[in-house]
Amino acid sequence: MALMPELPEVETMRRGILPIVGSRIVDVSRPRSSKKPITIAPTLPTLRRRAVGAKIRDVGRLGKRVVVHLDRGEALIFEPRMTGLVLLSDPPTAEHLRLQITLDGSQHHQLLYWDRRGLGSVRLLPSENLEQQWADRLGPDALKITAEQLAERLGQSRRAIKVALLDQRAVAGVGNLYASEILHLAKIHPARPCNELCPDEWKAIHAAMREVLRLAIRHEGSTLSDGTYRNALNLAGGYQNHHRVYDRAEERCLTCRRAEIQRVVQAQRSTFFCPACQPQRR
DNA sequence: CATATGTCCTGAGAGC
DNA sequence: TGCTCTCAGGACATAT
């Protein structure tokens, strides 16, 4: 089971690298260990020219991206996609280390981007109105959106609620793992069409979304069986021990203790749910 | 316009 | 044992 950094994992990365705020970038390099380079935009020499000497002003998050704001009006955007990690300590392996940012003036000497599968990217973009730059691709953050906004943005859709929750233009931050967990807590069947959900059900989904994400952040995200996801100090998260449906197919439901968790495929992604807790019809 | 599908990538695990 | 094949799902491009 692969890692998939979603909002809680990316938020954990963000919090983990906060100690670098105030330090200065003295070098940016691409280690030789990475064979096929990830996307670095603009090019590495340009990035080095613009970033070296800059001071780190703040660390934010934009959906599933970590944003490192520099004091020169630009920001480094780390997008981990499937297997990317933003680290202060040594990476899981020397192989797949994609970018090394050397720092001065911090107890940590480096900020690293490691990515086993290399689907992620690092970009340098203007710090100003970053949200607007992503406005056509990112909806409100999952922890900031209101229940009314959520219902408004998805209420007319004919898509299954599980599929719709993965649409970053609707709400930013939810991915495949947490979508299943959220709908289980909300007691909503994942195949229910959005346009057949009533206001109370949207409220339940919204409340469950906040609860699951908040708890997952408290446990520093989910490290699945392949062990890929780590926090900024290369330590595993703990929320996988609290999953109630994800990757638990054929196990007895921990909530009702009667039915077996089922796995189905929606939009080429696995969905896990309890047929007793999450009935098809209400 | 809304929604669906194809694509990239690596390594774990299945099956023979 | 060692090979080949499938699958995991982020975001975006392209197709319907």
Description:
It is built from seven helices and eleven strands. With 282 residues, it is an alpha+beta fold. The mean pLDDT is 92. The chain binds a DNA duplex (16 and 16 nucleotides) through loops.
Query: Strand order within the widest sheet?
Result: 2-9-5-4-3
Summed over residues and divided by their number, the pLDDT gives a mean of 92
Shape: globular
Question: Counting H and I runs of at least 4 residues, what is the number of helices?
Answer: 7
Describe the sheet with the most strands: 5 strands, mixed
User: What is the structural class?
Assistant: alpha+beta
**N-to-C SSE string, H for helix and E for strand:** HEEHEEEEEEEHHHHHEE
Uncertain stretches of 5 or more adjacent residues: none
Q: Radius of gyration, rounded? A: 20 Å
